[in-house]
Amino acid sequence: MKKNKFLTAFVVLVYIFLFAPLVIIAMTSIGTENYIAFPPKGFTLKWFLTVFKSEAFISSMITSFVISGVATLAALIIGTPAAYGLSRYDFRGKAAIKSFFFSPLIIPGI
């Protein structure tokens, strides 16, 4: 039982470590000050309006959506028939192709 309490305390600390910066950033993003102050003294959305009115931000978001959409469509167009062929048919080299596709899951990242 003590091991379980230790594990619970550890998990809670990890969650605090991971989510505390997000909470602090969210709280300071709605503040009225030009600098980081926690807790914020007022409430405003002017920082969000400034970002969303920025031409560079809008251009970057459009570029990101276009690239991600094209990549998704390409993956679906290429991947669906490939997956169907690998699962339904037997052919020479099938094991090698499957091994190549599963290699990112087997080989650890650096």
The proportion of residues forming helix, as a percent range, comes to over 70%
* Total tally of structural domains: 2
- Whole-angstrom Rg: 24 Å
| N-to-C order of helices and strands | HHHH
Please tally the β strands and state the result: 0
Which secondary-structure class do the elements indicate?
mainly alpha
Main beta sheet, described? none
Overall morphology: flat
Taking all residues together, what is the mean pLDDT?
Answer: 89
Beta-strand percentage?
under 5%
Give the distance, in angstroms, between the N- and C-terminal Cα atoms. Answer: 36 Å
- Spans of 5+ residues with little confidence (pLDDT < 50)? none
Number of helices: 4
Domain ABC transmembrane type-1: 61-110
Transmembrane segments: 7-30, 56-84
Main location: membrane
InterPro entries: MetI-like, MetI-like_sf
Structure summary:
By secondary structure, the chain is mostly helical. It has helices spanning 2-29, 46-53, 55-88, 94-106.
Question: Can you characterise this structure?
Answer:
The chain is mainly alpha-helical and 110 residues long. The chain folds into 2 domains: 1-52, no CATH class; 54-110. The protein has helices spanning 2-29, 46-53, 55-88, 94-106.
Write the layout of secondary structure elements.
Layout: H1 2-29, H2 46-53, H3 55-88, H4 94-106
Task: Write out key terms for the chains shown.
110 residues; mainly alpha; 2 domains; 0% strand; ABC transporter permease
